[in-house]
Design goal:
The structure is a homodimer of 364-residue chains. With 364 residues, chain A is α/β, with parallel strands linked by helices. Helix content of chain A is 35%, strand content 26%. Chain A is built from twelve helices and 16 strands. In chain A, α5 runs antiparallel to α6. Chains A and B meet through α2 and β1 of A and α2 and β1 of B.
């Protein structure tokens, strides 16, 4: 509706408009629950005490003042809070939280209310060892640590937004991701515990929207790399992996990956700095994908990386770039090999259903 | 949407739902004005300081605290207030104002802000001497007093809700009713002034939704009539005209008119009281209409009523009931004669365009 009226509607008015949807849903669901014989009330983000900063359309939650929610719960009511929205501090304007804002609202409220668990009902029934559309044998994970879930979200798992998981981790809110369509338990995302069975590898993830940018023969003097990435950061471009390989004659090659949407911006930005940076040429390749292994057990099990490289090599898949964290290994490969790589890794690290079910049987 | 979910949705939730529409409109209009190069902001009823009672879906305005509106105006902004809604005192819930609520919001804000005039833009270009669909010669009134407008609204004129006019009168807000589609001036509704040309008759109105109820041979003892109308009031039934004509043998007939929607309720209610009231039989006729003359000049010009009866008689239209105020005369007639009566009265009291234009010419 806004686009029909304006190419660039004011963000404040966009928020006034966008906040209406969740309010309508909350009111309608409250009516439905009321008809089922329960006492239900809807609350706007503002009424629920979701206080945000003033960054319209992408506001951050600053504080939760849930006394109205608490009061209604104490009165035995079912409370429907319009998610994705809040009220800005000082200006008291309606704000929206941007991507992942609805889940984040739920997690933030659960934290403020000291809830035992925050259940996220969605269109999948949990977090899987990998994308079941690629690997039918993929297994639903009964539980996973915040850190693993963060790495999985960061490396391509779509089930939860990084932002809400980060929020849950910071405030220690147990998340239960489950299906809206069944009562089957889903996946619990919780604090890592000593007694928590630590799979060496919990999941295989992939991201297709990767592009590789290479600056050839950058003169190798101090501060050049810093200059490059400061410029990119200034343009709000998210750089994922970086490699710098020293080459002969006092020059180096700098390669890094960005979201393929950003390739054009990056190109024009850096070409504008060519003289200052003194590189020979800039090469881009948006035909890249990233395949990752995530698992808390990696911390205590060396050799996972070696095995990953081996599996990819056996499949004649060339590794362009590598990055690791204590619980994650990512490899950038050609997009065309993604499915093959995911299947091979899932199989090689024994993530299929049968095998795990077998282990669980032994566990009893 | 609500009806699809529930036959009897909670009023509080209806208000949460219904308030969304005006918010969406306000935001979209603010965007449009912004695109025209002006600084515009939308405010919800709550942000605009519209404080109401807690009667959801038909709330009354208790107070206006327009400091946000005033501040935005002082900053040179165009302010779009979502009408028809407010926030309830004490409970701080979203309320809606019910029928006429949008106009009433505008009038209330104009009063609170001390505006010179409250312009109501609508789909007709003003208040006419009668319904132009019935009388093509009907004339647009340049100005009319609050009292006349109230009587016209009360007797069937649809252009403004009684409620918003009453509000304007109480706070002395000048109303200007005009068309959304032209810049032509419409009708000003203002305080009656000495120097204000007082047409003897300003307009002819009609209402078709009338029903007549008669209680035959009610035993004529004190308090019976009171009992009847207390019972009706208790059922929220609006009684318009009442006649009681003494008949022989210590009994009387009581007739009154109600909205024809209420006939069934009235019948069952009064039949339940037949023993107590001791009437012989109850008769209803929902084939009635009410035709009215409204004009501030009547106060000082006797004989208007006589002329009205005469005109109806000449047209063989039987008068069932009559009620008068200082500036209004209403006659209940059979519905089928409504159009004929309106035409004859409009003509007899010289309300056609030419003649008035002529008078105005003389006036110069």
């Amino acid at each position: 509706m806004a686009r029909e009226i304006s190419d660039d509607p004011p963000h404040r008015e966009m928020d006034m408009l966008l906040s209406a949807g969740e309010r309508i849903s909350a009111a309608l669901v409250a009516m439905a629950i009321h008809d089922l014989g329960h006492n239900a009330i809807s609350l706007t983000g503002s009424q629920a005490g979701i206080v945000t900063d003033q960054a319209h359309t992408k506001a951050k939650i600053l504080d939760i003042r849930p006394h109205r929610v608490q009061k209604a719960l104490d009165e035995g009511k079912v409370v429907l809070v319009a998610g994705f929205q809040g009220i800005s501090t000082i200006t008291n304007d309606i704000t929206t939280l941007g991507r992942g804002g609805s889940d984040t609202t739920a997690v933030a409220l659960a934290a403020a209310l000291g809830a035992e668990v925050c259940e996220i009902y969605t269109d999948v029934d949990g977090v899987y060892t990998t994308d079941p559309r690629i690997v039918p044998e993929a297994r639903k994970l009964p539980r996973i640590s915040y850190e693993e879930m963060l790495e999985m979200a960061a490396t391509g798992a779509k089930v939860l937004m990084l932002r809400s998981v980060e929020f849950a981790r910071r405030y220690g809110v147990a998340l239960h991701v489950r299906s809206s369509f069944t009562d089957a338990p889903g996946t619990w995302i919780v604090q890592e515990e000593e007694n928590m069975e630590q799979a060496i590898v919990s999941g295989v993830t992939y991201a297709l929207e990767e592009a590789k940018v290479t600056l050839h023969r950058v003169c190798d003097k101090p501060g050049v790399a810093a200059r490059v990435f400061t410029a990119l950061a200034g343009a709000n471009i998210n750089v994922d992996m970086i490699i710098q390989n020293v080459s002969e004659g006092g020059t180096t090659d700098i390669s890094f990956t960005v979201a393929d949407d950003d390739v054009l911006t990056v190109t024009s930005l850096l070409c504008g700095l060519q003289e200052e940076l003194g590189f020979e040429r800039l090469e881009t390749d948006d035909n890249m994908a990233k395949v990752s292994l995530v698992g808390a057990g990696m911390k205590t099990h060396p050799g996972v990386a070696a095995k990953m490289f081996e599996v990819l090599a056996e499949n004649d898949i060339n590794i362009e770039m590598i990055s690791t964290s204590s619980i994650k290994i990512s490899c950038v490969i050609e997009k065309q090999h993604t499915e093959q790589a995911v299947k091979a890794l899932h199989q090689a690290f024994g993530l299929e259903a049968e095998q795990i079910e077998h282990e669980e049987t032994l566990g009893r």
